[in-house]
Amino acid sequence: MPMRSILALGAVLCLCACGSADDKSGADEGDSPAAEKAASPEQPGKATHYLPDYAPLYPGAKVTSGVGGDVAEGPGGVVTFETSDSPTAVVRFYKAAAEKAGLKSRVEMHMNDVQIYGAEDESGHRSLQVQAKSSESGKTSASIVAARK
After folding, report:
1. 8 A C-beta contact, residue 144 and residue 136
2. Could you tell me if residue 24 is inside a domain?
3. I need a surface site. Which of 28, 83, 116, 141 has the fewest CB within 10 A?
4. Is this prediction's pTM over 0.85?
């Protein structure tokens, strides 16, 4: 899958995670056989269970939101978290994890206080996207999107 598709998917999933707990406009969780295996925005910590092994939760991170689930190809999810470490340290951590797992860097951008990193394996079956940004509170807010396709 091209990196543009991965970035678009990540943006859509992040927007989905921003919905209100009162918003019932979508399907009920019970409408899908996979619903029992999915983490909802109301259970952000559960989403970390769906992160593939090549995308572990950042050490000491405080999860602020997340969604995830299992598909035939394996687990995947979007997790947003805060840390007192810098955006550079967060991206460096995930870049090392991706390289260790055999993923190749595809995108690396630095814009003001935002850093973006993306990687996938040669077959395009495993992908990782990380976005880290300094916040006004002095902490780093980051999101990771990881999936097997």
Report:
1. no
2. no
3. 28
4. no
